[in-house]
Amino acid sequence: MSTDLIGTKTRSRPVSQLLAEEKKRITPKRPRDYVTWAVAIAIVAGLVWTAVTNENYRWPVVFSYFTTQSILNGLLITLVLTAVSMALSTLLGLVLAVMRMSHQRPVSGLAQLYIAFFRGTPVLVQLIFWFNIAALYPNISIGIPFTDISTPVNVNAIMTPLTAAVVGLTLNQAAYMSEIIRGGFASVPRGQHEAAESLGMSGFTKLRRVIIPQTMPSVVPATGNQVIGMLKETSLVSVLGVADLLNSAQSIYARNYQTIPLLIVASLWYLIMTLVLSVPQSMIERRFSRSTSRTRQIPAADAELGAGQPVPATRESLL
Question: How far from 21 is each of 24, 130, 209, CA to CA, in Å?
């Protein structure tokens, strides 16, 4: 008897883990499918042919400048700007999202005002504004309130082009990250909040152990897109004189007048970095999609066999 039950349970388990949306669907090929493939191949072949045969692209010049030291230095500055700005903007966006969802009207109002301002003005204008902030506040004092202890700070000295780039990109990106994180918070069911409160968790513990892990499946894809967008937005800091990838290419073609080849060099590097960043983004998305797909409905046969046993997927989603 027990052998039959074990065999039944073993045979039925793979069937129970196969959801309807995971089953492979076979669709017959239609003539228009072959036509679309032919059109797509013809378009790609035409673009490749004109790029190879047109001498105005000057591919030898592109290859000669592709790995020059100035281009590689600009590439490094672009990556550093992207990493630092995204890290700081994510932390600031988390704070703004918590403030935005606060029941205190002044707190949520300040967050809404911040988001409305930085989302409503162009990032290029913000970068130029922070670079020229010394025109408004040439000197500031940092000290202890209501005392004579203070230290004067020369704003013009500390607001270098690189500092202005980090400040401008971080503050602008934080407004978008706060809305992404707030959307993730809104996706967590109310019952999860009540369950955490019934266990006596503090606000910070509930946020760290219950809310944030469950927001990741909805936050990670949008954050990955923002990282790629931030990588391309760093090209705007070239107007401030920051020696990023685009600025490095501009400084070279300003001397040798090889404008198109150097722009192709910068474009190819941006494309390569975007493709490289897309790989870990896809891996992280699959990781979190697997963790959420484990919570599935157990058929009646498995429910009877596994009655009284814990369900690891449900507990994992809560932690």
Answer: 8, 50, 30
What backbone torsions phi and psi does residue 54 show, to the nearest 5 degrees?
-80, 115
SS3 of the chain: helix, strand, coil, percent, to 5: 80, 5, 20
Beta bridge partners of 139: 154
* CA–CA distance, 150 with 172 (Å, rounded to integer): 30
Percent of the chain scoring above 70 in pLDDT:
82
pLDDT at 20 over 60: no
In this structure, are residues 165 and 237 in contact, taking their beta carbons and an 8 Å threshold? yes
Token pair belonging to 167? 């400040």
This prediction has a pTM of 0.75
Residue found under tokens 């019952």: 191
Q: How far is Cα 87 from Cα 103, in angstroms, rounded to an integer? A: 27
The CA distance from 264 to 66, in Å, is: 9
User: E strands of 94-157, at which residues?
Assistant: 139-143, 150-154
As a dihedral over the C-alpha atoms of residue 110, residue 111, residue 113, residue 115, rounded to 10 degrees, the angle is 160
Structure token pair of residue 270:
């941006």
Q: Among 136-150, 193-207, 298-312, where is mean pLDDT lowest?
A: 298-312
Measured CA to CA in angstroms, residue 231 lies from 118, 159, 244 at distances of 18, 22, 11
Phi, psi of 268 (to 5 degrees): -65, -40
For the segment 302-308, the average pLDDT, to the nearest whole number, is 42
Structure tokens at 28: 């017959």
Predicted confidence (pLDDT) per residue in 54-74, tens digit: 888 899 999 999 999 999 999
